[in-house]
Amino acid sequence: MPHVYPALLEPEPEGGFTVTFPDIGYGATYGATWEEALRQAEDMLEEAVLGMIAHSEEVPAPSPANGRPVARLLALTAAKLELYRAMRQAGLDAAQLAAPLGWTPKQLTHLFDGYHAVRLEQLEAALAALGRRLVVSSEAM
Questions:
Q1: Confidence check: pLDDT of 60 > 80
Q2: Which of 1, 83, 104, 117 has a CA that sits 20 to 30 A from residue 75's CA?
Q3: Under a CB-based contact definition with an 8 Å cutoff, are residues 32 and 49 in contact?
Q4: Considering the chain, what percentage of its residues have pLDDT values greater than 70?
Q5: Beta partners for residue 70, in sequence order
């Protein structure tokens, strides 16, 4: 699953858990309980992925969980990541993808920003310009 990353939760001597993502390679967070640690892990994963995109870095694919706990990207962030990966695979930068859409490079860059409101229609249009489409599914919890 391309948007589900295995987490490493390590118990701390004073209590709680430190969380890292071996696939991401940097950053750590903490939770006083297992559940809180996993919630914090999802926040950290979001920030790490959006940060890598903002810095034009390669976002690594997740390794198999193999029984480890996992954190999932929010659906909107997963869609942004799909667009980012498709854009990089096509060898395009923001200006090159923005042109056929009639957008400014800044408008396209805002699609990847975690602090800008983004509509799915915008992501779908950008993906369509790359010959791709957004596919949505659900799964049991």
A1: yes
A2: 104
A3: no
A4: 99
A5: 6
At 5-59, the pLDDT tens digits run 999 999 999 999 999 999 998 889 999 999 999 999 999 999 999 999 999 999 9
Angle, alpha carbons 126-139-6 (nearest 5°): 80
Side-chain half-sphere CA neighbours of 121 within 13 A: 0
Cα–Cα distance between 55 and 114 in angstroms, integer? 13
- pTM equals 0.91
Q: Which long-range contacts (CB under 8 A, 24 or more apart) does 59-67 make?
A: 59/84, 59/85, 60/23, 60/24, 60/25, 61/2, 61/23, 62/1, 62/2, 62/3, 62/4, 62/5, 62/6, 62/23, 63/6, 63/22, 63/23, 64/6, 65/4, 65/6, 66/6
Outline where DSSP puts E strands in 3-59.
4-6, 8-11, 17-20, 29-31
- The answer to whether 80 and 53 are in contact (CB under 8 A) is yes
